[in-house]
Automatic annotation (TrEMBL):
<keyword id="KW-0472">Membrane</keyword>
<dbReference type="InterPro" id="IPR002524">
    <property type="entry name" value="Cation_efflux"/>
</dbReference>
<dbReference type="GO" id="GO:0005886">
    <property type="term" value="C:plasma membrane"/>
</dbReference>
<feature type="transmembrane region" description="Helical">
    <location>
        <begin position="116"/>
        <end position="137"/>
    </location>
</feature>
<dbReference type="InterPro" id="IPR050681">
    <property type="entry name" value="CDF/SLC30A"/>
</dbReference>
<dbReference type="GO" id="GO:0005385">
    <property type="term" value="F:zinc ion transmembrane transporter activity"/>
</dbReference>
<dbReference type="InterPro" id="IPR036837">
    <property type="entry name" value="Cation_efflux_CTD_sf"/>
</dbReference>
<feature type="domain" description="Cation efflux protein transmembrane">
    <location>
        <begin position="24"/>
        <end position="206"/>
    </location>
</feature>
<dbReference type="Pfam" id="PF01545">
    <property type="entry name" value="Cation_efflux"/>
</dbReference>
<keyword id="KW-0862">Zinc</keyword>
<protein>
    <submittedName>
        <fullName>Cation transporter</fullName>
    </submittedName>
</protein>
<keyword id="KW-0406">Ion transport</keyword>
<keyword id="KW-0813">Transport</keyword>
<dbReference type="InterPro" id="IPR058533">
    <property type="entry name" value="Cation_efflux_TM"/>
</dbReference>
<keyword id="KW-1133">Transmembrane helix</keyword>
<feature type="transmembrane region" description="Helical">
    <location>
        <begin position="175"/>
        <end position="192"/>
    </location>
</feature>
<dbReference type="Pfam" id="PF16916">
    <property type="entry name" value="ZT_dimer"/>
</dbReference>
Amino acid sequence: MAKTAMKNSIEPPRTKWSPDRRSVFLTAELVGGILTNSLALISDAAHMSTDAPALGISLAAMRIGRRPADSKRTFGYYRFEILATAFNAILLFMVALYIVYEAYERLQTPAEIESGTMLVIAAIGLVVNLISMRLLSAGKDTSLNMKGAYLEVWSDMLGSIGVIVGALLIRYTGWSWVDSVIAVGIGLWVLPRTWTLLRESMNVLLEGVPDGLGIEEIGASIRAKPGVTGIHDLHVWSISSGKTSLSVHVVSNGPPVTWPALVAGVRDMLAHDFEIHHTTVQVEDSPCEQAGELHDFTPEHAKTELQNE
C-alpha cells in the first residue's frame, strides 16, 4: 500500500550554529569575490546570502508551527512552514536566474581573477557548508520546510566544490572564462531542484493530494469494505509535511445500527494502509446533494442537485 512520504515535523538539533556562522562567512566570501573578480565566488556567496534568512525563516516557521490550534485557526499554524518553504524556493530561484545572467555578461568581457585567494575562500566555504549540512540532516526527511533549507545548503556545498575546481584550472591554465562557466553551472544545477521544491510546497498550499498517495487507490479500498455500495466527495490533502487529512461520504446498504462499526473499519484501514489518521467519514443510505461530479460551495448548487434526483 502507498505510504506518505513525510512523517511528522521535528525540530532538528543545534541548527542555531548554521545561520549565525554562515552569515559571517558569506560576507567574507562576497568581499573576496569582489576583490578577486570571481563571479563563481560571488555566485556562491549570493546563494549563501539567501540561506541565512532562509534558515532563520525555516526555524521560525517550525517554532510558530508548534503553536496550538485556537478558535480562529482550528488547524493550528502548521501551514506556516509551507509558506516559508515557498518563499525560500522563490528567493533561491530568482538568485539562480540572476547569476546565470551575470555569467553570460562576464563571458563577453572576461576579467583577471586572483585564483589563489579564490581557492582559499572556496575551501573554507566547503567546510562551512559541510558542517551546516550535518546539522540540518536530522530534519531533512521529516519536514518539507527543513528539506528546503537542506537543499539550499547542499547546492552551496556543490558550488564550493565547483569554485575550488575552477580556481585550480584558472591557476594552472589561465582560463579565466572557467569562472563564468562554473557560475552558470551552479545556477543551472539549482534551478530544477528549486522548481521541484516550489512545486511540492504549492501542492500543499493548493490542498492537492500528497505525494505518495493515490486517491483512486484510497477510493477503491473504501469501496471494498463490506456494506459499502459507493462513495463520493472524497478529498485528501495535507496541512503540512506528514499531516494528512481525509474526508469522504460513504453510501451503505446496511442498517444505521451498523454504521458506527463501518466508520471505525474505514478509519482503521486508512490509518493502517495509508497512514492517514485525521479522517472524517460520513455514512449515508443514499447519495446526498454533494454526490455530483463538480464540487460547489453555494446553496444554489445543493438545491439543483436535490431537484435533479
